[in-house]
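Input set for joint prediction.
Command: fold jointly, output tokens.
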Amino acid sequence: RKEVEQDPGPFNVPEGATVAFNCTYSNSASQSFFWYRQDCRKEPKLLMSVYSSGNEDGRFTAQLNRASQYISLLIRDSKLSDSATYLCVVNMTLTGGGNKLTFGTGTQLKVEL
Amino acid sequence: NAGVTQTPKFRILKIGQSMTLQCTQDMNHNYMYWYRQDPGMGLKLIYYSVGAGITDKGEVPNGYNVSRSTTEDFPLRLELAAPSQTSVYFCASTPEAGGDNEQFFGPGTRLTVL
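tokens >
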């Protein structure tokens, strides 16, 4: 079983649609959770952290369910500029210090006119 | 403040050649990381460093070496390039461990081994 699993997509949605991505992780000792965004041929960039209480940043809402080891991302009112690959990322602190980020393979979103 | 910079942007190597991928950050971050990303795959951790003079292996260290003589620089060395090392290499840094510390990524080096 992969450490972090995501549906690769692509999700093709019209502008203005609401779209949801899901992710599951296998290591229950994981400590923190993120969604990163990666544009084509670019580096990943942090979109938002994910908390059990749920958190919102404008049109983006993230949710964590530790019991089910499940993470979600909801994008409302999709824009063309939201087209990208969304990476589910799970963090653990390494024994010697530093963080180990485990990345899912990403879910590709294409927003169309 | 340039953030994390990587050179070169692109490189083609022949099997058996060696090269060093350069990574520099100007944010005074203690923690630095090297990842590789194969097509359609997630990023995999190659090596990491928690400070100058300290490095450790990640998930996929074979065929690579690193050094960390300064806080700013974290070069990745490929000694005997193999086709399996064809990938995009990302360097990242973060100020400290734990919590919600964002990892800042460089723009990547696209490496092809023929």
